Amino acid sequence: MSVFIDVYSRKIVGWAMGRRMQDKLVTEAFNQAYNREKPKEGVIVHTDQGSQYTGA
């Protein structure tokens, strides 16, 4: 499972699930969050530095 959370509101803005943790999940969750929230220029994305995030 890959989840993107808005740190300010603590709302889940994007997520994806799969049998294996792959970079595809991260991309799907990020795209969902981006399309749902339409962030303004300058948005910052923090990760836990997992291999899926460095691969995406």
From TrEMBL:
Gene3D superfamilies: Ribonuclease H-like superfamily/Ribonuclease H (3.30.420.10)
GO biological process, one term: DNA integration
Superkingdom: Bacteria
Gene Ontology MF terms: nucleic acid binding
Entry-linked Pfam families: rve (PF00665)
Coiled coil: none
Domain Integrase catalytic: 1-56
PANTHER family, per database record: TRANSPOSASE FOR INSERTION SEQUENCE ELEMENT IS904, TRANSPOSASE INSF FOR INSERTION SEQUENCE IS3B-RELATED
Protein name: Transposase
Organism encoding this protein: Streptococcus pyogenes serotype M49 (strain NZ131)
